Amino acid sequence: MVDPTLNEREPLKVLLVEDHADDRDLMLLELRRAGFSIESASAWTRADTESQLREQEWQVVLSDHAMPGFSAAGVLELLQQHQPQTPCIIISGAIGEDAAVRLLQAGAVDYLNKNSLERLGPAIRRALQIAEARRAREEAEAALLESERRLRELNENLEQRVRERTDEVLQQSRLLETAINTLKDAFYLLDEHGRLVRWNSALRSASGLPDDRLRSLPLSQLVRREEAPVLEEWFSELKDQGRATCELRFSHSPDVPYEFTGALLTDREGNIEGFCGIAHNVAARNQTEAQLKEAIRTVIEDASWFAQSVLDKMSRVTSSGAAPESDVDLTDREAEVLECIALGRNNEQIAQELDLSYATVRNYVARLYGKLGVHSRAEAVIWARERGFGQGDPIMLT
Fold first, then answer.
1. Where does the pLDDT of residue 172 fall: very low under 50, low under 70, confident under 90, or very high at 90 and above?
2. Element (H or E) spanning 312, and its range?
3. CATH classification of 6-135, choosing from 1.10.10.10, 3.40.50.2300, 1.25.40.10, 1.10.3210.10?
4. Reduced to 3 states, what is the DSSP secondary structure of residue 228?
5. Which residue stretches of 34-86 are H helix?
6. Which listed residue, of 8, 70, 81, 347, carries a Cα 20 to 30 Å from 146's Cα?
7. How far apart are CA 110 and CA 8, in angstroms?
8. Strands (E), the chain
9. Exposed, middle or buried, 285 (CB in 10 Å: 0-12/13-18/19+)?
10. pLDDT tens-digit series, residues 106-164
11. pLDDT score recorded for residue 295
């Protein structure tokens, strides 16, 4: 007759290491009573036991303590070699307490007396739970070790990439440093507040300050105090137009004029990130202009009519007869300054006539040079008169 609860039984693969058939049958009977559906095999020699452990995976091994030529200690040794996760319960008719302790220390999970087989079912379930917990713990430990290994490799790779990237940045920084230090002009990079972030050796020389003093120093503290309004106007024009030019002097070398050309730096959203540019020593250029003016004064001294005639002839030589059109966008104030230049006024006269400061006039003149594409006052006069400026009073160069 078939057991109606057979399909509800708990499957169990058990290896019986027992040399008495009756004892094996009693253990199997007790396991069925405990609700297990049994798949079993038997062995009672070392060779048979090792063969069974090689061929199949077992959930539990039930072993007698002492058999002819074999023992539970040998079973535990073979389990350790072939199936270390499989629990082993020692079942013996007579076993001393010391021997039982040694077997438990060797790897057995429990031991029972053959006269107490009613405890076999609970003992096996407990052994399976212990084995499962041990397996889960070992899997977790293995997963942790693997995770640590991968994390270690990731950190090593990341550190390597960081070192490589750092080396690249340092190399680029060195190249940039070399490049900007080859400039004869003073290079500067300012933050959004106008403080120095980077500079070259030319600016260090012009300012007369060491690097540790220049770091984060506002540009306003490098130039002459009386030129602060010019610098402020330059910053305003930078923010409004993106580019600007003005003439300033460093406090360290107040007799040397520098033409500051700057550009605005912004992020993708248009927020101001800083300013950069160069300061070009224009002392030689200004000296050349002064010498040219002096030569012109010598030629036309007390003969302003001659200067007017010369300019008219020069205009006819450089034009086709009709006054060229101006494609330069000048502000009203710039046009007034240019009119004065065309009439031969110097900066002091222009400042007095237009009620401006001398520094402001100088700044306007520098901007006009940039807009007109000229490099001297004489060129500016010719450019202006070709386009109808300076047709009022006769030219008077002083």
1. confident
2. helix 304-318
3. 3.40.50.2300
4. helix
5. 46-55, 72-82
6. 81
7. 27
8. 10-17, 36-43, 60-63, 66-67, 70-71, 88-92, 110-113, 186-191, 196-199, 243-249, 257-266, 272-281
9. middle
10. 889 888 888 888 999 999 999 999 888 888 888 899 899 998 898 888 888 888 888 88
11. 55
**Among all chains, which residue has been given the structure tokens 């090593």?**
156
Model pLDDT, residue 340 = 94
Q: State whether residue 269 is helix, strand or coil.
A: coil
**Within its chain, how far is the Cα of 186 from the centroid?**
29
Mean pLDDT within 220-243: 92
What single-letter amino acid sits at 359? A
Q: What is the 3-state secondary structure (H, E, C) of 78-95?
A: HHHHHCCCCCEEEEECCC
For 223, the 3-state DSSP assignment is strand
Position 214 scores a pLDDT of 93
Which architecture characterizes domain 188-281 according to CATH? 2-Layer Sandwich (3.30)
Structure tokens at 78: 């073979």
Q: How far is 101 from 98, CA to CA, in rounded Å?
A: 5
Q: Which residue's structure tokens are 């004029």? A: 257
Where exactly are the structural domains of the chain?
6-135, 188-281, 285-386
CATH fold of 285-386, please? Arc Repressor Mutant, subunit A (1.10.10)
- Cα–Cα distance for residue pair 377/328, rounded to 1 Å: 17
